[in-house]
Design a protein that fits this description.
It contains twelve helices and twelve strands. The chain is α/β, with parallel strands linked by helices.
Length: about 400
Amino acid sequence: MTEKSHSSAMRVPLLDLKPQYQAIAPRVRAVIEAVCESQQFILGPEVTTLEARIAAYSHTRHGIGVSSGTDALLLALMALDIGPGDAVITTPYTFFATAGTVARTGARPLFCDIEPETFNISAAAVRTFIERHCERRGEALVHRASGTRVKALMPVHLYGQLCPMEPLLALARESGLRVIEDAAQAIGARDAGAHQAGSFGDVGCFSFFPTKNLGAFGDAGLCVTQDEALAEHMRVLRVHGGKPKYHHAFIGGNFRIDELQAAVLNVKLDYLDDWSRRRAENARIYDEAFARAGLGANVATPTALPGFHHIYNQYVIRVRRRDQLREHLAAAGVGTEIYYPIPLHLQKCFAYLGHAEGDFPESERAAKETLALPIYPELTPEQLHYVVESIGAFYAGSAPPARG
């Protein structure tokens, strides 16, 4: 094999959506053309079809298409009447929208730390928080320090793996809390009992951002619920709270999913399970390659809970010297990402919550040690092995491997 410079090494982007599109382009173009011919762009038949299909796929009764994953969370909070004077328990190690939507309603995010193996919120941490920092006042659970009423629990199924929901649901029942699942990264993920993401709580919230396993051609999202009255309330809220039109019993917002996005998603949904299966196969190849490379002292691969179906929206490793490794991989032509470099309790906008470094050590450690590797379905085994070889070269102190 002829040695080559780093600039001519194999390229492995973090994500390349072009191969996915090329494989389904004729079908996508046809449905877009059909919507254009119909000139029905708002809450048309494609939206109705998508809502029913996602609800059935998620083992729920009702789907409510919305404008983004963020708006799905916001709509769920509004529908459950969460606002000023209220609080929501969630994780500080997640995308900003999780706590950001809580704050946008005027409610207070209350953070609990994560499990180090899965990066998902720790049920033990939630129980400890409730026991130490909250008290019952009549029918309400009150956070002593802020005086806010704790009304909901918002677990996040991070990176494509479900939180073990039974202990969290038990805590919610004991404490009288509603449950909103942030399943933005987890459509199709299941637990050992084959229960689907989004089917556990009062509302499940999905994102169809283009990078997701099921991605739209822009922003889009969806809420699912088993509760018919709650579903109807969300449908009205997403059109400014108006029903009938121009009659507003309450204030909502403009949270409608676009008909064109729904049409694209209806095509892509046919391929979702295969794409997720291929992501899981790529994760298996990574796991075996890392094990053979003997990198255990420097690299910890993702933990898949026994019996759980992980959809690998991301393949996130823990590593020593993370930032230097990322620079090395960039030089080797390997794309990576850091999710999330600053946990939410240390973000400037949440300084009013009064947290300091050290308050949530597992979240802070994850923020410093984790790195997401390419995992999208169209990657080849050769590309995956090249990523592992490049990481091995870094810890061996050598240059990135060249490919002839």
